[in-house]
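It is worth pausing here to work through a concrete case rather than discussing structure prediction in the abstract. The textbook approach is simple: state the sequence, then state the predicted structure, then interpret. We follow exactly that order.
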Amino acid sequence: MSRIRREIIIVVVPISTIREFIAVDIIGSTTFYYLLKLALKKLVLVEPIAIAGSIVLPLVYKKIAHRSAAPRSSVPPRISLQG
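Step two, the predicted structure:
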């Protein structure tokens, strides 16, 4: 009987990353979208401007907030379970 070699990859996402995603990407972007729609309601292209603003906000926030953070390793450690 041949043995099949299998690897199990476990990805751990810190709760702080999940909270930041919810706060910035979901709540912050939605709030910014509606604020732009209200502030620019007299313009013709309100919808595209509000959409673009809600897309750009999380990107700018992450660039500014993570600028001082140490660079993370792009390759996660691999754990091999052999039995």
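Step three, interpretation. Residues 16-63 form one domain. The two ends are 15 Å apart (CA to CA).
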